[in-house]
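Standup, Tuesday
Yesterday: got the pipeline producing structure tokens again.
Today: sanity-check two examples.
Blockers: none.

Example 1:
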Amino acid sequence: MNAQDEKMIYRLFLTAVEKQVRSMMPAGYEVERGKALKNNSVELDTIVIREHGEEVVPNIFLNSYFQSYIDGRSTEEISEEIIRVYLENRNRFDMERFGDCSLDFFRDRIFFKLISNDRNLELLEQLPHVKINNLVLIFACLVEHSPEGIASIRVDNALMRKWDTDVSTLFEIASENTVKLFPPKIFRLENRNINLLLSHRLDDDAIEDLFVNDGAGEDPENEPKKWIPEDIPSLFVLTNHSGVDGASCIVYDGLLERIKRRIGRGFYIIPSSVHEVLILPESDEFCKETLEDMVRDVNSTVLAEMDILSENVYHYPEDSFTVSV
């Protein structure tokens, strides 16, 4: 199947599913198809089911169902699953739970995410954000945090206006919350083949947890215990305990400096994805340009578009992620 044929079949699939869902819902429900702009300007097709009077309902993304349709699943089966997803999730986002969506209600739930600036120019027109190098912080409200995953509401310009606040205040609130809601976690990797690690993502079985709230209350005048001897090359992964949007940890106040003291030297920050970064202690073996070639190759051949953070490799302390708003 060529690309043009696939696009035509996909359009027919969207129309058929919308029609099928509408026919299966009882009177009093509306069914609408739309689009959602996600990270890195990825546009996804959505379907929304809304009972009369419902204000907050889940967006259900249709793109992920298309492959199962190609593999032989019927639009009726897919539509039944979409309706089931709606019924199972509608009450998670009811207005009674969130009150009037005021700033006071969400104050302890506001956090930030780190994304690419250049890949999100259209999206950033709609969102309050803080630029850091070629990256930006955007804001969201945590709705649910469970073993099944994380649900959040993105803070857009309209919500910020409703709250009668500004970017500086959002950043101040999010800076305090994010490290509490998503504590940092750092791992040492035994396999030092960076290209392999980037290409195959991260395997928890191959890593050892070294962070464990390390460094809390350290006296800066005292030399901390080093994580690595000088003569043993090491590679680390920095993320958060949820493993979601963990690259944001590089903005946590004082964290990179703490890592530098524990490693005993400066280091490269390699953007593996929006969910984690690799920390590579500086040495004569690698240079920034070589590492960036690896990142660009992996971004273009392995990572899903929405997971890409940057094609740049950063060096700490030369590249600082201190925010000024």
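Example 2:
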Amino acid sequence: MMHVQKLGLAAFAAVCILSYAAPAYAQTPSFQDVPPKHLAFEAVEYLKQQGIIAGYADGTFRPDQKVNRAEAVKILIAPLATPQQLGQFGPTTVYQDIPSGAWYLPYVEAARQAFGIVDGPPKKSMFYGERNIQKAEFLKMLLIANKADAGAFGEIRLPLATDVANPDEWYYPYMRYAISSSLTLVTQNGLLSPGRELTRGDVALFMHRYAMYKEGRRTQALLDEAETEIHNILSSLDLNDIDQAEYASVRSLLAARGAHASRPDESIVKAAVKTTESFRALVRAYRSGVSGDLDNVITLAGEAWNLAEQAKKLDMGLATLADQVQATAKNMADSARALKAGGQP
């Protein structure tokens, strides 16, 4: 009864949901080790144009070089604080492991006092500037420094991945926001890797993606992300891995919701939200079926069917996908009713 047929995604893939004029970057790279085909090329060129990052004297950017906490704080604070503001901080600091006159001391104190992105006493008396920055740490600092609302979509407190499963972890809201703003995707192994040490290329990508999101230019990326996660849902259900399917359904919903927050009036975006909600309901129905809760299967399948109907009404570009969701939902509900009646699914 709980076999879920594969749903075609041609509607998502074929529809050009939103378009915008991408910034033009010279094909002659600014740094010899970040060519145009490099994943971080556009990010590095954009940040260089904005005066946010610079390379080394030998003409390299060194995108694979790890970034420590001192460097990360400078990268984040330098674009936000004027030299006059930075001059207000120092030459001493509350951190016991930062020597007087250290090059990064003003940035750290600005980060603590003016921007609130790092903790000081009594929570922390050491800064550990030489330690490599971790993904979750950097995302938290990036979002707080830019006054992002990390509490957005706070009603969603569900596991996001195998390694981000507890909504009470300090980094959970920042990982949730990062998904809803297209800053990060899961790996092929379904991980968000909050503890991964970042490189200069990673940092450039996060900062560029956030800047583009704030300008409303990551909507297409978010809808692509929602599509990718729908693929992940279906692949996981094919493997009977309900946990991974549920994680993917939450990430898909967050991506669509993030797109809607950016472009609330676009019909295709509103339809995408309803579509991801319908997949979320299908996955929940699947889990209920496995656990033998047939009444809940019927209820959730009906919810999925209705959400797909709403998606069609909002934008017929998703009609094919919505029809397939409805067909699957009907099959699940019919099978549950047959089992309840004592028949064969």
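Quick observation on example 2: The longest helix spans residues 267-290. Residues 1-22 have pLDDT under 50 and may be disordered.
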